[in-house]
Amino acid sequence: MTVSFEKVRNSVENTFHTLDCTGAALILFHNNEMQVEQYWGRQSNKENARSIQADTKFHLASCRKSYIAFAVAFAIFHGYIQSIDDEISLYLAPEQQKEVFKGITIRHLVTHSHGLAYINGEDIRTFAPGTNWAYRGRNIELIAAIIQFATKRNIADIVNEEVFKPLNLTETNWYSELDETFAEVIREQNGKFWSVSSNIDGSQMNMYASAREFAQWGLLHLNAGKYNGKQLIQPEILKLATTIHSPSFPTPNLPENGFMWYVKGSERKRSEIGALVPKGAFQILGYTTVTLLVIPSEKIVAVRAFNSFGSPEGYDYLEDVRSFGDSIMVEVTFSPES
Question: Do residues 66 and 172 touch, judged by C-beta distance below 8 A?
Fold first, then answer.
């Protein structure tokens, strides 16, 4: 008897009805077999909007950082970056050097422990590197510059050549133009945030993917770089990206990160991974509430996707995303096959 994953379906549907969005998707693989493929709603709130379907592309928001993580791990594996404990100044052009960057390492950038904030056009330090955790975008801008300087290639070039082409992914990328297959991010006011950018070098927030291809990205991690029986990516690269690299924080409540990925180690109050999800799992979450969760011990890959701009009033995104992972574990743990 197979697992129905009905609780997972209900979890995603409840989130769909809670968020300010018009569409949702759920893809779930168990033991490398697709168990759930379900779509809700439409791609926008316009009249006669296209229904959410297999090729619908969702805005990944911060989920794009899982691909940026790959580019960093690729650069380290191939020796372009010698160590994650190297100071970032070693990999920045002279005109990009700043005194405030002193003491900040690659490790600090990829684990959100760098302490930088970019305010009024200036970099300031809000805490000493490695002593605290803060989720800010400045690290991605610096990582993009470091990758370019170290490898002479941009993030998108690396990911396209090393991942998208070998896997034949055609519904995932940084896009400068949108067509009828893209879900519109629903927000109260139209603004410049997340508008289409002509810059597709991998440093911008204009990345989209279909839920099914985002799940393929998760499967690649689950299977240590193998796809259809072929080793397409060195397993060491993916392991490097999804192993905990966070420094030893003074408080045990701060999240544990690999290269941007949240990784389940010990229980952390500010982690986005559910309490029932076992150690070794890793997850990435975007502002649009798109989520990819990989649970290696259970051979689970799960993607939920929405086209929401952030969280409505009263919505606890941490509680919601934790319940997504926990609903999966309840089904797997208490299924007749377990």
Answer: no
Strand partners, 173: 208
What is the domain-level CATH number for residue 13?
Answer: 3.40.710.10
| Nearest Cα to Cα of residue 194 among 55, 83, 290, 95 | 290
- Total domains in the fold of the chain: 1
Residue 223 pLDDT exceeds 60: yes
- 188 pLDDT more than 70: no
Residue 236: inside a domain, yes or no?
yes
Check: pTM over 0.85? Answer yes or no. Answer: yes
pLDDT of 1 > 90? The answer is: no
User: What is the overall mean pLDDT for the chain?
Assistant: 95
